[in-house]
Backbone:
């Protein structure tokens, strides 16, 4: 009952690889733009307001591109991988709230020795997101 | 939900990667469906039925019971 169906390369894997590369370049561009926005005023253009405003606008524009690339990436995933990513998003959002609120409270009450920054939350969210995806992928392997 | 994907694949001497390619999903998804870790959507079930030229209930069986014959004809076209 051998049956010849389409044999057109692996379309899904190709799309996934292309989407991953697109996401990687957008993420890299955003990190670079954020670094320019953060350090440019001090090290490159000596606080010139116009250039600082341009740096912020560029960072936001590339950030929007990154969001759209991520949206496109998720739309191209198959249903199992979309489930893994959805669960990872859910866990990440939960951890952000559960960890963020008490840490902020402890900071405002002066009960911890360091000052809580938005970067701390972003790092926690990033690590949680990656760990959740790794766990989800392992669970359905 | 039980399914016969592994058997149908073996009858054609297809690898999981080949079936994944035919159904436009990842190999991991095929493996997860075959081992019962993941239940496919109706869309994917229809795609599998079209590929194997069978009815959906001939590939996927609900373990909760019930008479598949009484559920109407789900032949994929």
Residues:
């Amino acid at each position: 009952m051998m049956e010849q169906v389409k044999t057109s390369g692996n379309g899904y894997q190709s799309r996934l690889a292309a989407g991953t590369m697109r996401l990687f370049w957008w993420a890299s561009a955003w990190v670079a733009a954020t670094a320019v926005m953060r350090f440019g005023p001090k090290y490159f253009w000596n606080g010139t307001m116009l250039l600082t405003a341009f740096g912020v606008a560029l960072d936001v524009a590339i950030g929007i591109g990154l969001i759209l690339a991520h949206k496109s990436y998720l739309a191209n995933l198959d249903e199992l991988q979309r489930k893994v990513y959805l669960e990872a998003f859910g866990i990440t959002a939960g951890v952000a709230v559960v960890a963020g609120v008490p840490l902020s409270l402890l900071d405002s009450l002066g009960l911890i020795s360091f000052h809580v920054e938005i970067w701390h939350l972003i790092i926690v969210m990033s690590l949680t997101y990656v760990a959740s995806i790794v766990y989800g992928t392992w669970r359905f392997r | 939900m039980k399914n016969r994907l592994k058997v149908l694949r073996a009858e054609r001497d297809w690898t999981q990667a080949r079936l994944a390619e035919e159904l436009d999903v990842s190999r991991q998804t095929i493996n997860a469906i075959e081992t019962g870790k993941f239940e496919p959507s109706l869309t994917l079930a229809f795609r599998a039925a079209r590929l194997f030229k069978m009815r959906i209930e001939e590939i996927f069986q609900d373990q909760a019971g019930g008479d598949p014959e009484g559920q109407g004809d789900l032949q994929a076209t």
Q: What stands out?
A: Chain B touches chain A at residues 11-13, 17, 20-22, 24-26, 28-29, 31-32, 37-38, 40-41, 44, 51, 53 (CB under 8 Å). Confidence is low (pLDDT under 50) at residues 67-74 of chain B. DSSP finds five helices and two strands in chain B.
